[in-house]
Design a protein that fits this description.
alpha/beta, Transcription Regulator spoIIAA, 5-stranded mixed sheet, 5 strands, globular
């Protein structure tokens, strides 16, 4: 399954619903989606990963670099929601769980801003 990114801009937060597989071949697409939002002044981001089947190390790097860019100058944050168990395992193994605020649902993640 290819990568599918759906973006909804709410009042104060942008929600990216990411489905499919994030691997080295489509990581630039994910990076570009995040970058476009930040270029438009959107730094409060929620990534809904409920449909994510796989994420590579390159995909994890995009999440971390986006998190850093959002937090720079205290502008915002990248929060993760609806993580499937396999993705939680990958974040745990990579030691990245403490970096992110993780929520069980998107409503909670959006409301946390």
């Amino acid at each position: 399954m290819a990568l599918d990114i759906d973006i909804r801009n709410l009042k104060r937060v942008s929600v990216l619903t990411i489905k499919g597989r994030v691997d080295s071949s489509n990581t630039p697409e994910l990076e570009s989606a995040f970058q476009t939002l930040m270029d438009n002044g959107r730094f409060r981001l929620v990534a809904d990963l409920s449909g994510l089947e796989y994420i590579s190390s390159a995909g994890l790097r995009v999440l971390v670099s986006t998190l850093k860019a959002c937090k720079r100058y205290n502008r915002g944050d990248l929060r993760l929601s609806n993580l499937p168990p396999r993705i939680v395992e990958v974040l745990d193994m990579a030691g990245m769980t403490p970096l992110f605020k993780i929520f069980d649902d998107t409503v909670g993640a959006v409301g946390s801003f």
